[in-house]
Design goal:
Layout lengths: L7 H20 L7 E5 L5 E4 L2 H11 L5 E5 L20
Antiparallel strand pairs: 1-2, 1-3
Length: about 90
């Protein structure tokens, strides 16, 4: 089996749609703050306290996974703030 080729914008849109409609109700709020790695081709996912571990766990099960990552309960996986930036990190 080969990994399907999909552009980043489409992969992100599909990942967000799958997460919001199928997975979010199952994992929030009890897993808030953890990372979720999602295979958009199958809907399979893994959750861990570190993104690398969630990704590794999923790839062990699904080596050909088409990955999308989410930080449960947050709008972004990571947010980088610089000194003087008026936007503060909010869950």
């Amino acid at each position: 089996m080969t990994t399907p080729i999909i552009d980043d914008a489409r992969r992100m849109a599909l990942g967000k749609e799958i997460y919001e409609t199928q997975i979010r109700p199952l994992v929030e709020p009890q897993e808030t703050g953890k990372f979720l790695a999602l295979d958009i081709a199958t809907g399979d996912y893994a959750i861990a306290r570190r993104l690398g571990l969630a990704t590794h766990t999923l790839l062990q099960r699904k080596p050909q996974a088409v990955l999308h990552s989410v930080r449960i309960g947050y709008p972004e996986v990571y947010r980088f703030l610089t000194p003087g930036n008026p936007r503060q990190a909010k869950p």
